[in-house]
Predict the 3D structure of the following.
Amino acid sequence: MELLRSRRDLARLPARGAGQPALVLVPTMGALHAGHLSLVEQARAWGTVVVSIFVNPLQFGPGEDYSHYPRDLDRDLALLQPLDVAAVFAPDAADIFPRQDAVTVSPGPAARFLCGASRPGHFQGVLTVVAKLLHLVQPQVAVFGRKDAQQCLVIAEMVRDLDFPVRLVDLPTVREPDGLAMSSRNAYLSIEERRRAGCLSEALQQARQALARGERLTDRLREILRSRLAAADQVEYAEVCRVPDLQIPHEATGHLLLAAAVRIGRTRLIDNLVVRVSATGIRDVPLLAAGESEP
Ligand code: AMP
């Protein structure tokens, strides 16, 4: 496993091109957990895996946790070592963003809602770093977690509208035994907060069950989500949206994202379920069309 600490080290990336396996990028901010490792393991099916570890300053707002975000490169490398990873790209912030006042990527319409409404500038920061990582590493495939569903959709809009030559894949959310989606931020929770955090995945499951029972009114599904989130200290949003445009339908059918963001103590947690509701029932599906086909 090559450790690439700067953009200059990228000369040591595995060869790509005719006759070579595809290069597959798994972007992360480190503090790796089983969710990240599952992305890495599944990414191998698409080709030679490169993992990036970079805590992106641009995607944190003022007062958010950029300076406290957990960083432990040695631990992350030890977790990746047993997996079949060709290279880890772990540059410094100054190497990726040498200028303060630089060009950024302006997100498309999918960034207006949900997290985009409550975190101004967040998706601009995400797209700017993802665009740079895609240009620097030049993978043929990039793998993202469905856990950050809106991020996947916003990146897919950029890749489509700015003609990035990359295929995007979204992979399922890995959860703790009680259903809590794995997240580097779960480490911030006290024991009491960790217990209450279970309400997030439970609320989404309750809404999914209501859909399975035939409930189709978005307003009613939103009420179910909100009522089951009573243990949270604040509900930032709890919504049923259409995929991929994130508009809110009156009737909940077709490709849907059930999504919520809450605060438990000072920790902000997000989670979602992606489903397709049709006359024959409800099933869990990927967000992006490319994820539906096998590698
Ligand atoms: P992050 O380090 O939080 O930027 O996440 C890096 C990648 O891992 C993103 O594509 C996330 O969506 C994905 N990811 C984070 N948590 C999970 C999880 N619990 N299950 C699957 N993927 C995840």
